[in-house]
Amino acid sequence: QMSLHHKSQKTLDALFAHPISMNIEYSKVVHMFEELGAEVEETKKNHLKVKLNGHEMTFAHPHHKNVDDKNQVVAIRDFLKDCGISPE
Fold first, then answer.
1. Is 76 helix (H, G, I), strand (E, B) or coil?
2. What is the CA radius of gyration of the chain?
3. Do 67 and 76 contact (CB within 8 A), yes or no?
4. How far is CA 26 from the centre of its chain?
5. Helices 26-35 and 6-15: crossing angle, nearest 10°?
6. What whole-number distance in Å separates Cα of residue 34 and Cα of residue 63?
């Protein structure tokens, strides 16, 4: 697995944290995806489409600066796992 810059590694760690972290900055999540080599595309309906390691996921922009929906954090975490990515 590729090594991430410190900030993206912290974002990745936060996404996998227990209990679920509620203060993960959305822009940092996007940056982390880009650093992982994902194809990131804004869609018209305020969604982000992410393609990584043969997997694809679309999720909505949060209404605030942070990803503040537990289900979305879990969905991003599961997507990363599917792509073979974990904090270790």
1. helix
2. 12
3. yes
4. 8
5. 110
6. 21
pLDDT tens-digit profile of 67-87? Answer: 988 999 999 999 999 999 999
pLDDT in tens, 6-27: 999 999 999 999 999 888 999 9
* Phi, then psi, of 3 in degrees rounded to 5: -90, 140
| Integer Cα distance of 77 and 55 in angstroms | 13
- Burial label for 49, CB within 10 Å (0-12, 13-18, 19+), is middle
In the beta sheet, which residues pair with residue 18? none
Question: Angle CA(36)–CA(17)–CA(67) in degrees, nearest 5?
Answer: 70
Residue 26 tokens, joined? 């959305």
Are 34 and 62 contacting, i.e. CB atoms less than 8 angstroms apart? Answer: no
